[in-house]
Amino acid sequence: MAKLKKKKKKGIRGRSFSSGGSGVETSPLRPQYIPKTPPCGINCPNHNKIRTALMTVSKAEDFGKTYDQALEEAAQIFLETTPFPSTCGRVCPHPCETDCNRKVLEGSVGINAFERFLGDFALEKKLIPKKLTEDTKAEKIAVIGSGPAGMSCAYHLALQGYPVTVFEAFPKSGGMLRYGIPDYRLPQDILDAEIQRILDLGVELKLNTIVGKDISLEDLRNDYKAIFIGLGAHQGRLLRVEGEDAENVWTGTDFLHKTNMGEEVAVGDSVVVIGGGDTAIDAARVARRLGAKATILYRRTREEMPAIDEEIVGALEEDVTIEFLAAPIEIFRNNGIATGMKCQRMELGEPDDSGRRRPVPIEGDTFDLEFSTLVAAISQAPDFEGFDSLIEGKNWFQVDDNQKTQIDGVYAGGDNINLDIAITAIAHGRKAAAAINAGISGTEVEKGGDKAIITFEKMYTAYYEKHERTAISEMPVADRFASMDAEIISTWSQDEAVGEAKRCMSCGACFDCGNCWSFCQDNAVIKPLDKGGEYKFKLEFCNGCKKCAENCPCGYIEMH
Description:
Layout: E1 8-10, E2 16-18, E3 31-33, H1 39-43, H2 50-58, H3 67-79, H4 85-91, H5 111-124, E4 141-144, H6 148-159, E5 164-167, H7 176-179, H8 188-199, E6 204-206, H9 217-223, E7 226-229, E8 235-236, E9 249-251, H10 252-260, E10 270-274, H11 278-289, E11 293-298, H12 309-317, E12 321-324, E13 326-334, E14 337-351, E15 357-370, E16 373-376, E17 380-381, E18 410-412, H13 422-441, H14 494-501, H15 515-519, E19 525-526, E20 536-537, H16 547-550, E21 557-559
């Protein structure tokens, strides 16, 4: 009689292997649980625990929780790392979504809108951040500047029990969040509420107090154990073009500062804005709300524009004209008033230090552009008066990996280090708070993990059911100009936020799908008795068939 061949079974991913249970080893490799870092968390400059928050909501029913309970837990998870979830949910360009592994299916998870919902939820429910101690420490800390960097540092120090005093030069707190972002993007009542939550932790705020003028940095060093400096980039830079000293020529920061504070700004019927960043886009869109025609002049192409893409789209929807590959070379004046300018057509040459292609003038190709107001939004910088001892050469403040400056006990972050987005400033403040606490307590600063980043190539993405990204509701364009503070984007409903959370694939972390247990024919995977418990391997039963690893959707299991 002919000897029968043992049949081979096929795993769900289409790989062949010998059937188990025979005691015959098919591979010397054995499964291991290897936690990994999701792209969302590593791409967030503040490393917010995004995956954890999303999965807390996604798995609520499985763990016997109501969605209200799960959403409260998720909001607290965000509040562990950031005091500004509502604010960042409105203004952040969401780098966390850039490499989200869900993008290979229907598109990245809407993390930014989810954070916004959680932030608003936390404000509505009046959630109180969880302090790390109820004790009040003896060491007093000073924070200079109440923008995202300074208030983040104050927040995290207050959570650790430190008495913190924040010194703010302006009449209101918030820094560039208040004075540099229009109300239609960030309503002031939202910002006020998130700042008040920080103050309620015991943080003292001294407004209209200019360090370097009303009080010196040295005086603060004598009175406080440590100092954090978070100066905002409130000073706009001019064009260095003849004629720009006319009274109807503004810097972008001055223009937005005045309009954000409700001051009347007469712009006439035609505003030209120079620049391609968020300040330029905001200035043009504010001009439209003041009833003017708005034109942006940018010396590169749209691909090189540093502004948030959604804001560029919004500007175009609102009939803002963008003249690409053009730059001003002369401003025309009449009786001290700027009336127009001569513009130079450009083309892109070789890349510059920023990596963007350098704009090169096209000889003889110019055109004239008339306007009633000109806004120069090309760049901005902090006011460093009173902080000369911290300036190193031509650079701004220089800090080490823990945000410490060259002066003992003085830390810095935010715009006075380098112009960047709000969440980067928040990260600087958080990191400095950790370093200040470590220095005072004599402990080491906790370092981040070195877990590998999980990418979709190492995941079994076919496991996940199709689930389209949740749409975001926007105000019709025709209704946007009725009020300067009419918010364009709507916050999701609870059902929408929960639905989007369910799109998270828990990249690199077990989410109790049970695939490893279901596909193991050798009883080598032990299912936990309690929901959410850890699966375990009984390696003496394993023959190395790889089915558990091949069918692990999130890439948590590896064979070694």
